[in-house]
Predict the structure.
Amino acid sequence: MAARVASRAVCGAALRFALFHFNKSSQISSRRWLNLQEYQSKQLMQDCGVTVQRFFVADTANSALEAAKKLKAKEIVLKAQILAGGRGKGVFDSGLKGGVHLTKDPVIVGELANQMLGFSLTTKQTPTEGVKVKKVMVAEALDISRETYFAILMDRACNGPVMVGSPQGGVDIEEVAASTPELIFKEVIDIFEGVTDVQAVRMAANLGFKGHLQKQAADQIKKLYDLFLKVDATQVEVNPFGETPEGQVVCFDAKINFDDNAEFRQKEIFAMDDTSEGDPLETEAAKYDLKYIGMDGNIACFVNGAGLAMATCDIIDLHGGKPANFLDLGGGVKESQVYQAFKLLTADPKVEAILINIFGGIVNCAIIANGITKACRELGMTVPLVVRLEGTNVQEAKRILQESGLPIMSASNLDDAAKKAVACVAKK
Ligand code: GDP
Ligand code: MN
């Protein structure tokens, strides 16, 4: 599966996979968890009493320079704001190396910001063309004597929140999980009880904090959990969760994901959503309550339900084809959604055939058939269309398609449909 923007959310999913052997299909859930930029996440942390560095956000080189002066800090750290991680080791198309820079001179902050803003930053987690940087964070730099990893996430296997930590922080946590799993520590949290003092101190000790730093770290851990609950997060990740030589525990980086089901009571947070980094087709699809996932092949899949989507992709693959995407209609479908779905599918120039695979349980096949014929006519579709409908009102649906006079290929079952779609593409 190649969801295109491998955001830091995906990084979290990978971690979850490494730690808890999540079923693969759960990573391709229909949920689109809200993702915020580091500066937004840090603002939320600050509001909960979590220790972060003093910072400003800038969207021009000049305001970055001004912010650097205003900080009056011994040293300044300048950080490109994109949703993907691994920024420290990233490269800009301006030639600048590194999305995180430390300097003592505000003038250099301005110069560096000039090579970041408006340029694309490519990291291990971005698409190869990178992500355009529109904002930078200008923060007071602190010395780091030790980098640890700390996260709280909702875990299916535990039916609730889990704390995950490692004394080996700052680096790729997936790598730590793979090569030294004994350095990953877990604490299952009882949602009714919250993080207990014993758990917070044990985690802090496992992270390698000693003496008064251990107390401080435990306190930060409890505050991060308060934040996790307060904002309906699915993940709060701090890497590095570090200590300074002056004896302070600080969250140097921040990544928070939010549960989309909580949007109704987290309006302020969801209003901060910046969709400009996402796949524009996925964003467009979300507007119509459709779930779209882009892939690399040339056969578009139009299905209802994530399970059927997976099965359809697999069977296309089995017959030697490659899915270009899948669009999941979900349950209560309206004719207008079918129309929008077609518009989205055909907007992708890679698409050379469309396979419609609908199992009408809740969905009425006749509504789908009407949507298909309307979309075909109004959008002047030219790509071949293979349709397999089954279930509620299927006879009526087949009649509508047949009488439409449109060049729609009917398939008797999923296997037949996949073969026909692959054949269409092979002919080209
Ligand atoms: P990421 O690469 O996208 O995860 O960005 P981070 O915010 O984690 O920064 C990358 C690395 O830069 C961290 O692991 C730190 O080693 C370093 N770094 C970030 N902020 C500071 C700072 O204030 N002081 C120092 N000394 N190093 C920092
Ligand atoms: Mn980091």
Q: What stands out?
A: Confidence is low (pLDDT under 50) at residues 1-31.
